[in-house]
Design a protein that fits this description.
Radius of gyration of chain A: 38 Å
Number of domains of chain B: 1
CATH class of chain B: Alpha Beta
Shape of chain A: elongated
Number of domains of chain A: 6
Number of helices of chain A: 24
CATH class of the largest domain in chain A: Alpha Beta
Helix content of chain B: 10-25%
Strand content of chain A: 25-35%
Strand content of chain B: 25-35%
Order of helices and strands of chain B: EEEHEEEH
Structural class of chain A: alpha+beta
Helix content of chain A: 10-25%
Number of strands of chain B: 6
Oligomer: heterodimer
Number of helices of chain B: 2
Radius of gyration of chain B: 14 Å
Distance between the termini of chain A: 108 Å
Structural class of chain B: alpha+beta
Number of strands of chain A: 49
CATH topology of chain B: Folate-binding fold
Largest sheet of chain B: 4 strands, antiparallel
Distance between the termini of chain B: 35 Å
Largest sheet of chain A: 7 strands, mixed
CATH architecture of chain B: 2-Layer Sandwich
Shape of chain B: globular
CATH superfamily of the largest domain in chain A: FAD/NAD(P)-binding domain
CATH topology of the largest domain in chain A: FAD/NAD(P)-binding domain
Strand order of the largest sheet of chain B: 3-4-5-6
Chain lengths: 1001, 99
C-alpha cells in the first residue's frame, strides 16, 4: 500500500495519511448520536463520519430502512441529520453539505429508540401493504378520522426530524446585488467564465454552494494546464477574489430564477460556525439583478436501481471519488464499482492509485466496449456484460450479487459499492421560467432546451458538456458572448489543457433481474415497483406518477431519482424518454429556511407601528394604546381609581363636552393640492362642489368610487386661491392618494394641479369643547383674532402660536362641540401637546383617546369606516344631495344605476335601547317586531354602537329600510353570532345637539 | 419583474402597485349611452395572452402612474411611459383625454 491509513490514535481508520484538501494540523471534535469523533478542517459531516467508519446515518421516511451516505453534495437524499442543541436545533440538515466545526452535535432522525434498533422498522416488513397510493386508498374513510387519528399517527411514524419549538435566536437579512454577469457555479466552466468576463471589465458575481470554489476540480485527480485541478481552481478563485469588479460568493446557492434577470440566492454566512459571528446574520438572502447569467451548475450523478440498492455502503461513484480525493477518505476497505459509463471507472482507478482496494468492476457493456478502460484498473477483476442484482447486509453492505455475462449469479464480498448510472446535467434553473429540457441520446440525459430564461446561457456539465476541457472552453465562450452583447471588449484568453474524454454510456436504469425491491427515490421510499404500479393504475403521465408515488416530492426534490423514474416509466409505457418528458422544475433548487425569506421582518418588525407625534407624551400619561391600521394610537387615558375602560372613556367624553378635551388626530391623511385648476380638479374627485369654497373656509367632502359607492370622506380647506388641503380617513390615506394621483395623471393630465401627501409633515390636534377657544387663545399669538366673529364655524387659516411657530387652524368638529383642529410641523407636535395641556390646566383640559372620539362621533351621527364600508351610497348615508347635479364627478354616472337608487335600500338611522339594562352589538340585524329573524325579514344592520354617557344609555348607528321616516318605531336587533335579541327604537342619527348649535358659538 | 419607470429607471416590481388595463379611457359622462359606456369602462376588461398595456403606480418611488407594455405570457416588459404622456399623446384610442 503506497498510502497507509492514519494511525488508530485519531480514530479515523478510513482516513488516508496524506493528500486531500483538509488541514490535518487542525483536529475538530464532534459527536454523532452522542458518540465523540474527530475530523479535520475541510471536512463535511459526511466525510468525517465516513473517515470514522460510520456508515449508518439515518432511517428512511416511510419504511424506516437503514440508510447511509449516498452522495457528496446538496443532492443527498439519505443523510439528513439534526444539528445543534436548544433553540438552534435544526432538523433535515444534509450531512454532505454540513461543514464540520468544533463541538458540532449531530443526531440521526426517524428512529426510535435508537438508530441501530428502530421499532418502526416494522413498516418495512409491512411494506406489501404500504405501496404507492396506500394512503390515498386506506385513509379515505371516514373523513373525520383523517384529522383526529390517521394524520397524527402517520406524522409521528413518518417524521423528518423535529423542530426546537423555540424562537430562532439568530438574525437573517436580505440584500440586493446588481451585476453585468452572474455566474452560477464555480467549477471549471464557472471559474473560466468569470475570469474571462472579469478581465473584460464587466461587473461579475460568481456564486457557488460549496465553501471551496472549484466544483468537481476538487474531487478529481487530474491536471488543468500544468497544475493539479484543485490548485488551478484555488489560483483562479484567488485571482477573482482580488478583482474589484468581481464578487465571489461561496456557501451561496442560487436557488431561483425570476422575471427580468432576477435571481434569488441564499448565502449561508454563519451556518458553518457553532453560532454566527456577533452582529452578522446567520444567512443572507440575495436578490441578484443580472443583465446576463451563465449557469455552470454542473451535473448530478444518478444511481442504477437494483435489489436493496438503498443499503448503507452503496454510494455514487463520483461521491466515492470526492471523499477520496478531496477529503482523503476511503469509503470502504474493499470497494466494488458498478458503472454503465466510462466515468465510473475513474473511481476504481483513483482508489487503486491512492492505495485502496478495488474488489471488482461491473459494467453492463461488452468486453469490447470497456477494453480501453482495463488498463486503469490493473489486475482487478472486470465483469463486462454484467449487472448487480442485489446487496446484502442491513446496516452496511457486506456483499453484492453479480449476474455475469453467462447468466450466473456470483457473490462478491465488498463493504462499499460505487455506482454510476451516468450524469444528469443540473438543468433545474433553466426550467424555472417554464422551460422544458430536451433529451440527449449521446449522454443519455436531459439537457437545457431552447426556452431557457432570457439572458441566461449554460456552460459545462450543466449544458451536457461533460469533459473538463469542454467545460473550460464553453465557459470561456459563453462569457465572451455575454460580454460582447453588453459591449465589453473581450481579449482572447487561453483555455488551459485538461481532460477531454468523450462520453461513453449505455443507459441502464434498473436491473430487471433483481429479486428484492429496487429503490429510486431514497428519501420518499419510492421503488421501481411503485412506478409500475402507478402505470398499471392509470397514472401514466410524469405529473401523475409524481403525485401518486410521491416521487421527487421530498426535500431533495428527487435530484438523484427523477430521471431514472421517468426512464422506467417510458420503458413500461413503451415510449421514448423524450415523449415521456419531465415534471416542472420550480424554485427553490435546495431547501430555503423560512427565516431567510422573512429576513429582518420578524416579530414586531414584520409590521412596524407608525407613532403619532404625541406618542411619547401619551406614554408618560399612562395611556392604553390600540393598533389602528398602521398606527399605534392612545385608546384611553386611565386615571387612578378607574377600574374599567368604560369609566375612563365616559369621563373623557363628559369632560370634553363640559369643558375641553384634546386628541391627537395626526393620523388622518392629509394631501396638499395646488395649481390653477385645483378647484376644478376637486370638483371632479368630490361629489360636491369645491371650486366655490371661499378662501379661509373648510367644507365637508364626499368622494365616490367610479362605480358609484362612497369611497371616503373628509374635509377640504382652502388656504389660498390655488391652494387646498384635504383630509382623508386614517385607513384610506394611501388609497386616496393613489386615487387622486390616478385621476390627475390618467384622466385629466392637462389640468394644472399638483398634489403631495403631507400626512407625516403635520402634527394635528383636535381641541374640542366649550372652552376650546379659551385654551387656544392662550397659545395663538395675539395678532390672530380667533373670536367667533372673526373665525367662525368652518373657518381656516394660517396662524402662529407660542411666539411665532407657524400653524394652521381649522374650526371643524368631529365631536359636535365647539372645536378646532390645530396643525403644526410634525417636529413641534410634542411641544404643542404639552403647551396645550399647560394652557388648559385651568379648564381641567382632558386628553381623550380613540374610544372617546368614537363615542362622541356616534353621539353626533358622524361616520367612519364602519359606515363607509364600500357598499354604501351617498343616499344610504343621508347625503344624496351632496352629489351635485351641476357637474361631473368620479362615480356620478354609475351612482345613478337603479340598484343604487332603489327606494328599499337600507339608509342611515340612529338606534337606542328601550330598556336601560340592554346593550347593543354591531353586526346585529334588524327585524320588525313580532317577525321571525330570517333572511327574508332582514331590514338592515347595526354598524357602530357605544354607551353614550351624554344620554346615559346604549346607542348605535346602522342602516335600515326607510330609516329616515321610521323614527320612533321599535324593531328587534338580532345578533345571531352573540345570541342577543334586543328591542331598539329607531331615531335620528344625531343624538347630541341635532341642530348643531354648539358648533357655532 | 423589473419595471422601467420613466422617472426612476428600472426598479423592482415590489415598488409598484398594479392596477390593470391601461387601454380603457374614462367615457364622456354627457354623451348618449354614458351609463352603458361607464359600465364597460368600470367592469369589462380584455385579458390578452401576449402584449398588453397596463397601469402601474410607482407608489414606492416617484408616485407616477405609468403605462407598461408587457407580454402577459412571458412577463417580458417592452417599455413604459408615464400615463400623462400616454394620455396626452392620445394613448391607444387615438382620442385625446377630455379637458
Amino acid at each position: 500500500m503506497s498510502n497507509s491509513r492514519a494511525t488508530s490514535g485519531t480514530g479515523q481508520e478510513f482516513r488516508l495519511a496524506s493528500g486531500g484538501l483538509i488541514d490535518r494540523s487542525q483536529s475538530i471534535g464532534f459527536s454523532f448520536d452522542g458518540k465523540r469523533h474527530n475530523g479535520h478542517q475541510g471536512d463535511t459531516l459526511a466525510s468525517a463520519l465516513l473517515a470514522n467508519g460510520v456508515r449508518l446515518v439515518g432511517r428512511s421516511f416511510k419504511y424506516h430502512r437503514p440508510r447511509g451516505i449516498l452522495t457528496a453534495g446538496s443532492e443527498e437524499p439519505n443523510a439528513l441529520v439534526e444539528l445543534r442543541d436548544g433553540a438552534r436545533r435544526e432538523p433535515n440538515s444534509r450531512a454532505t453539505t454540513t461543514e464540520l466545526h468544533d463541538g458540532l452535535k449531530a443526531r440521526s432522525q426517524n428512529r426510535f429508540p435508537s438508530l441501530a434498533f428502530d421499532v418502526m422498522g416494522i413498516n418495512d416488513v409491512l411494506s406489501p401493504f404500504l405501496a404507492a397510493g396506500f394512503y390515498y386508498k386506506t385513509f379515505m374513510w371516514p373523513a373525520a378520522f383523517w384529522e383526529k387519528l390517521y394524520e397524527p399517527v402517520i406524522r409521528r411514524a413518518a417524521g423528518l426530524g423535529s423542530l426546537s419549538g423555540k424562537p430562532d435566536p439568530d438574525s437573517y437579512e436580505k440584500a440586493t446585488l446588481h451585476c453585468d454577469l452572474l455566474v452560477i457555479g464555480a467549477g471549471p466552466a464557472g471559474l473560466m467564465a468569470a475570469l474571462v468576463a472579469a478581465r473584460s471589465g464587466a461587473r461579475v458575481v460568481i456564486a457557488d454552494e460549496d465553501f471551496l470554489p472549484g466544483g468537481r476540480l476538487n474531487s478529481e485527480r487530474m491536471e488543468v494546464g500544468s497544475l493539479n485541478a484543485s490548485d488551478w481552481a484555488a489560483k483562479i478563485s484567488g485571482e477573482l477574489a482580488l478583482m474589484a469588479n468581481v464578487r465571489l460568493l461561496t456557501r451561496t446557492t442560487v436557488f431561483g430564477v425570476y422575471d427580468g434577470g432576477s435571481y434569488a440566492a441564499l448565502e449561508r454566512v454563519g451556518d458553518h460556525l457553532a453560532q454566527p459571528v456577533q452582529h452578522q446574520p446567520r444567512q443572507r438572502l440575495w436578490r441578484i439583478i443580472a443583465r446576463r447569467s451563465i449557469l455552470c451548475g454542473g451535473a448530478i450523478e444518478r444511481p442504477i436501481a437494483f435489489g436493496d440498492n438503498d443499503r448503507p455502503g452503496v454510494m455514487l461513484a463520483g461521491a466515492v471519488r470526492s471523499y477520496l480525493n478531496r477529503h482523503a477518505v476511503l469509503s470502504g476497505k474493499a470497494v466494488t464499482v458498478f458503472t454503465n459509463n466510462d466515468d465510473g471507472w475513474r473511481t476504481a482507478g483513483d482508489i487503486l492509485a491512492l492505495g485502496g482496494k478495488v474488489e471488482a468492476v461491473i459494467d453492463p457493456r461488452s468486453a469490447e466496449d470497456v477494453s480501453h478502460l482495463r488498463a486503469m484498473v490493473g489486475d482487478v477483476p472486470v465483469f463486462s456484460r454484467s449487472r448487480i442484482t442485489g446487496a446484502s447486509g442491513s446496516k452496511g453492505i457486506s456483499s453484492v450479487s453479480v449476474l455475469n455475462a453467462n447468466g450466473r449469479e456470483i457473490r462478491l464480498e465488498t463493504d462499499c459499492l460505487a455506482v454510476s448510472g451516468g450524469w444528469n446535467p443540473a438543468v433545474n434553473l433553466t426550467c424555472h421560467m417554464r422551460g422544458k429540457p430536451v433529451w440527449n441520446d449521446r449522454i443519455a440525459a436531459f439537457v437545457p432546451g431552447n426556452d431557457i430564461p432570457a439572458g441566461m446561457r449554460v456552460a459545462g456539465a450543466a449544458a451536457g458538456t461533460l469533459s473538463t476541457h469542454g467545460a473550460l472552453v464553453q465557459g470561456s465562450e459563453m462569457a465572451a458572448a455575454a460580454c460582447a452583447e453588453l459591449g465589453f471588449k473581450v481579449s482572447k484568453s487561453l483555455v488551459p489543457d485538461a481532460e477531454d474524454a468523450p462520453v461513453s454510456i449505455q443507459p441502464l436504469w434498473h436491473v430487471a433481474e433483481s429479486k428484492s425491491r429496487a429503490w429510486l427515490d431514497f428519501q420518499n421510499d419510492v421503488t421501481v415497483k411503485d412506478v409500475k404500479l402507478s402505470h398499471q393504475e392509470g397514472f401514466k403521465s410524469v405529473e401523475h406518477l409524481k403525485r401518486y408515488t410521491t416521487l421527487g416530492m421530498a426535500t431533495d426534490q428527487g435530484k438523484t431519482a427523477n430521471v431514472s423514474a421517468i426512464a422506467i416509466m417510458a420503458e413500461i409505457a413503451g415510449q421514448s424518454i423524450a415523449q415521456t418528458g419531465t415534471t416542472i422544475y420550480r424554485p427553490p433548487y435546495t431547501p430555503v429556511a423560512i427565516a431567510a425569506l422573512a429576513g429582518r421582518m420578524t416579530g414586531r418588525d414584520f409590521k412596524p407601528f407608525r407613532l403619532p407625534p404625541s406618542h411619547d407624551w401619551a406614554k408618560e400619561q399612562g395611556a392604553v394604546f390600540v393598533e389602528a391600521g398602521m398606527w399605534l394610537r392612545a385608546q384611553w387615558y386611565p386615571r387612578k381609581r378607574e377600574k374599567t375602560w368604560r369609566q375612563s372613556v365616559d369621563r373623557e367624553v363628559l369632560a370634553t363636552r363640559r369643558s375641553v378635551g384634546v386628541c391627537d388626530v395626526s393620523t388622518l391623511g392629509k394631501i396638499d393640492i395646488k395649481g390653477r385648476d385645483a378647484g376644478k380638479f376637486l370638483d371632479r374627485v368630490y361629489s360636491n362642489v369645491m371650486s366655490s369654497l371661499p378662501v379661509g373656509k373648510v367644507r365637508y367632502g364626499l368622494m365616490l368610487r367610479e362605480d358609484g359607492f362612497v369611497m371616503d370622506d373628509g374635509t377640504v380647506a382652502r388656504l389660498g386661491e390655488n391652494h387646498f388641503v384635504i383630509t382623508t380617513t386614517t385607513a384610506n390615506a394611501g388609497l386616496v392618494m393613489q386615487h387622486v394621483d390616478f385621476c390627475k395623471q390618467v384622466h385629466w393630465p392637462q389640468l394644472d394641479v399638483h398634489m403631495v401627501s403631507v400626512t407625516d409633515n403635520f402634527a394635528q390636534f383636535s381641541v374640542a369643547g366649550p372652552n376650546s377657544r379659551a385654551v387656544l387663545r392662550k397659545l395663538v399669538d395675539a395678532a390672530h383674532d380667533i373670536s367667533n366673529e372673526a373665525f367662525g364655524y368652518m373657518a381656516c387659516g394660517r396662524i402662529t402660536v407660542c411666539g411665532g411657530v407657524p400653524a394652521r387652524l381649522f374650526r371643524i368638529s368631529f365631536s359636535g362641540e365647539l372645536a378646532y383642529e390645530i396643525a403644526v410641523q410634525a417636529q413641534y407636535g410634542d411641544a404643542l401637546i404639552r403647551a396645550l395641556m399647560e394652557a388648559g390646566r385651568e379648564f381641567d383640559i382632558t386628553p381623550y383617546g380613540v374610544e372617546a372620539l368614537n363615542v362622541m362621533r356616534i353621539e353626533k351621527g358622524h361616520l367612519t369606516g364602519a359606515e363607509l364600508h364600500g357598499r354604501t351610497t351617498a343616499g344610504d348615508i343621508g347625503l344624496g344631495k351632496m352629489v351635485s347635479a351641476k357637474k361631473d364627478c368620479i362615480g356620478k354616472v354609475m351612482a345613478q344605476r337603479p340598484g343604487l337608487t332603489a327606494k328599499d335600500r337600507p339608509v342611515l338611522a340612529g338606534f337606542r335601547t328601550t330598556k336601560p339594562e340592554d346593550s347593543l352589538s354591531a353586526g346585529a340585524h334588524f327585524v320588525r317586531m313580532g317577525k321571525e329573524a330570517t333572511t327574508d325579514n332582514d331590514e338592515g344592520y347595526m354598524t357602530s354602537v357605544c354607551f353614550s354617557p351624554s344620554l346615559g344609555q346604549h346607542i348605535g348607528l346602522g342602516f335600515i329600510v326607510d330609516g329616515d321616516t321610521r323614527h320612533g318605531e321599535k324593531v328587534r336587533a338580532v345578533d345571531m353570532v352573540r345570541g342577543r335579541d334586543v328591542e331598539v327604537e329607531i331615531c335620528s342619527p344625531h343624538f347630541v345637539d341635532p341642530q348643531g348649535e354648539r358648533l357655532r358659538v | 419583474m423589473r419595471i422601467p419607470c420613466p422617472h426612476c429607471g428600472e426598479r423592482d416590481h415590489a415598488e409598484f402597485v398594479y392596477r390593470g388595463d391601461a387601454t380603457v379611457v374614462r367615457p364622456d359622462p354627457d354623451a348618449p349611452g354614458a351609463a352603458r359606456a361607464f359600465h364597460e369602462f368600470v367592469h369589462l376588461r380584455t385579458n390578452p395572452a401576449g402584449l398588453h398595456k397596463e397601469h402601474w403606480y410607482h407608489e414606492g418611488g416617484c408616485r407616477a402612474w405609468i403605462v407598461v407594455e408587457r407580454n402577459t405570457v412571458t412577463h417580458e416588459v417592452m417599455g413604459a411611459v408615464t400615463a400623462e404622456a400616454f394620455a396626452l399623446s392620445g394613448g391607444l384610442s387615438g382620442r385625446k383625454a377630455n379637458a
